[in-house]
Every structure is written in C-alpha cells, then in structure tokens.
Amino acid sequence: MTEQGTAGTGQTDRTGQAGHDVGPAGRPPRSTRPRRGPSRTRHRVYTTIGVVGELLITFGVLLFAFLAWQLWWTDVEGNRAQAEIVRELDRQEVPDPTPSATSSGPVVAEPRRDEPPVLDEPPHATTFATIQVPRWVGEPERPVSQGVDRATVLDVLGVGHYPGTAMPGGVGNFALAGHRTTYAKPFNRVEELQVGDPVVVRTADTWYVYRVTSTQVVLPSQVDVIAPVPGDPGATPTERLITLTTCHPMFSARERFIVHGTLDYWAPVADGTPAELLGGA
Amino acid sequence: MYGWLWRHLPGPALVRAALLVVAAFAVLAVCFLWVFPAVAPFMPFNETTVGE
C-alpha cells in the first residue's frame, strides 16, 4: 500500500525505492504521507483488515491440519504404538513346528471345552490380552487393556476392557470398547462381522476363541448390553460371552455398534495356534 | 502480516521462501505433537463415552 505514495513522488524516489525493502531507507516516501490525512487512516484500516484476513486464512488452514491430524495422524501413531505394545508383551510363545512332524505347518491347538483358566482383573491401563479377528483381513493383533477412558486407555492403548465385566473365558460378559475411527481405529471394520465369525483373544498363556452370535445398533444410554446377561442387568450369568462396543455410525457418537459372541473353546498357547488364525475353520 | 514477515526476512527471495517453508513445517510439527492432542478432548465430536 505504501507503493502508492512512492509512485507519486516520481523520479527522485527511484533510489529510495531500491532500498525500500531494507527498512530505514524506505523512510523518505513515508514522510510524504502526513500531507494526506484521510488516506493515512484509510491505509491503517486496510492494513488491519488485511491482517485479520490473513489470520482467518491461517486459522482455516490450521483447521484442515487438525482434520488431517485427527483422521490420519492419530491412526499412524496409534498403529505404531499398539504394534509396539503387542511386541513387548511378556507372554508365552506359540510353539514352533517340530522338525519331525509330517507337515511343516504351524501346530494347530486342540480345542478344549472344559473349565477355562480365568485371569483376575488387572490394574487400570494394564495390557493383559490381545484380540484378533480373522474376518478383518489385514488388521493387526490389537492389545486389550483394563479400563475404557479415552485419555489413558482407548486413545493410547487400543482396545479397552470395561472394569467389572468378566475376564476372558469367564462366566458373564467379557466387554470391550474400541475406537471405530481415529486413534488406530481397532474396531473400524466391526460392521463386516457376521454371525459365526471367530473372535480370538489371547492372554499370556491361553487362547479363547469366541463366535459372533449377534450384532446390533443401540443408543449410547443402553449400557445393559455389557451386563453379565445382556439386556437383563440383574440376572445371574451362565454363559461365557464377549461383547464388542464401538461408535456408530462412523465419525459419529450418536449410536453404538454392539457385537455379542459366546465362547466356542479355549486352548493353552503352548499347544499351538487356533485353526481360526491359520486360515482354517 | 505475511507481507511484514517477508520484508523482515533476510536474504534473496529464494532463501526467504525456504525459510518460510521451514517455519511453516515447524508450526505444523508443533501443532501435530502438542497443540492438537491438547485441544482434541475439547472438540464436541470427541465426547464419546457415557458414564458407564
């Protein structure tokens, strides 16, 4: 905007113009301005409007940056962190195939349907298991940790276990929560699940293979889906259930997508790998 | 604002442009690492948990 004044002074200012960028040398043209009072206030107004406009544009760009962070970067960071958690878990290793075996493939764990071992609930934010869903091809093994608050569990550790609900294999309802979108979105593909699909939970030394029995969409207030007997909070449980809860529809928290399942069988990790994870069954 | 910044950066135009790119990247990095994680819990669409 000062260029207007410089151009008006003509020939003599040519030299001053070259130094205009440097600062102090740009003064000569400025000294001509006090002669035009109203144009000076106008200049100030335009400068202010310009700065406000630039601030608004900057804010808009930062909003897009926030979207990118929320929808993409939290997944990048979350996937990296959760993979690291699973890698660091102190747990029994799946046995390697014995060289003498006729087939060189991995050892398939023999399903057991007697009383399974059940862990005690660990302290808050402790990772005690992992979950794998063969239907979600390409999805990594996710850590399962105690607690369902966002700051210390869901946003940073992946899948959370509702405190007070059953532990894996226990009679009652092993209820889990996970993000549908953002923060590595462990339950992003929950809608692909079909009745009969296996959901495999692994603790330090035990596999628990659940089978999906139903899926439903409920309101966030319908918390009895995680009751020991879903929908009947006072009843005494007899079944060993699993319940996955996550947001629905995607990118919204208006409703909840609920998956119920029952325990099919369990197996010690030392016995091998469940057939469900090997492409069988 | 940006005009002022441009006038006060040293060096030829190419150096100034490079400086601005570096500065923009730094601002973005600060946002991604500290600012956005701090403001995210206050976003209305992030209220997902009911008092269960």
From TrEMBL, chain A:
GO terms for molecular function: hydrolase activity. Residues 30-42 have a biased composition (Basic residues). This is Class E sortase. It comes from Cellulomonas biazotea. The keyword Membrane applies. Pfam families: Sortase. Keywords: Hydrolase, Membrane, Transmembrane, Transmembrane helix. CDD domains: Sortase_E. InterPro entries: Sortase (IPR005754), Sortase_Class_E (IPR053465), Sortase_dom-sf (IPR023365), Sortase_E (IPR042003). Residues 1-42, 90-122 are annotated as: Disordered.
From TrEMBL, chain B:
The chain crosses the membrane at residues 13-36. Keywords: Membrane, Transmembrane, Transmembrane helix. This is Uncharacterized protein. It comes from Cellulomonas biazotea. The lineage of its organism: Bacteria, Bacillati, Actinomycetota, Actinomycetes, Micrococcales.
